[in-house]
Amino acid sequence: AMGVSVDALAALFHKHEAPQDQEHVLLWRVLRSPFSPDALDGIHRASVTYGDRPSYEPQRVIESFERDLFDELVVERRSLGQASSFWKAKAALYESRINHPGEVAWESRWSSAIFGAFRSRRVNVESLLALDDETLVADVPPPSPEGEAIALQLEFEWSGPLFRYKAPLRYVLLHEGLDQTPKPDFLSLQGLSRYFVKMKIREPWCDG
Predict the structure, then answer these.
(1) Which sequence spans correspond to the domains of the chain?
(2) Non-local CB neighbours of 159 within 8 Å, separated by 6+ positions
(3) What is the pLDDT of residues 67-123, one digit of tens each?
């Protein structure tokens, strides 16, 4: 309906290679950036779900980006408030929820249940979707001594195997850099990465 071919649409989601059509390159950069519509909407929805309504609106963050004369994506400095609010909301969500020991335990319990169901050879991907929660959790293997030790140390309710498929992430906003002079009126999307920082962290329950 929008006159975009299937191939052009698929190219927007290629992870490493930009589309050949220059008109689509800027959109590809947005989709691959920390400020993608998916990230903006996802953090907003998750925050609201946990009772913390963020002070940014996804659409307003998207609208703050402009295209300059050099075909670069930039954001006006006076519009950084919305982007900063998004980053702070994301940082708070990861700190209080995603990286919380209780959440790790909850994820580990479900991972163990799914692994156990597959190992039992009773289910495949299709039948797994039809299993009720009680049946699935009943397949959780017994706790390991290592799991019990970590559970005691971190006050987990779950003392079975602990799973994290990626190293935990922490999001930091470097105000010092944003407040330095001279202050350009616009900052590039790429340049924002110097102030809107993502870093991996190590936790006792993470092998990564």
Answers:
(1) 33-98+177-191, 101-154
(2) 143, 144, 147, 148, 150, 151, 152
(3) 888 888 888 888 888 999 999 999 999 998 888 877 777 777 777 767 766 666 566
Q: Of 206, 204, 106, which Cα lies nearest the Cα of 157? A: 106
Q: Give the strand order in the sheet containing 73-76.
A: 65-67, 73-76, 186-188
Note the pTM of the prediction, 2 decimals. 0.72
CA distance 129 to 17: 34
Residue that the structure tokens 């659409």 belong to: 59
Q: Compute the distance between CA of residue 125 and CA of residue 130 in angstroms, rounded to an integer.
A: 9
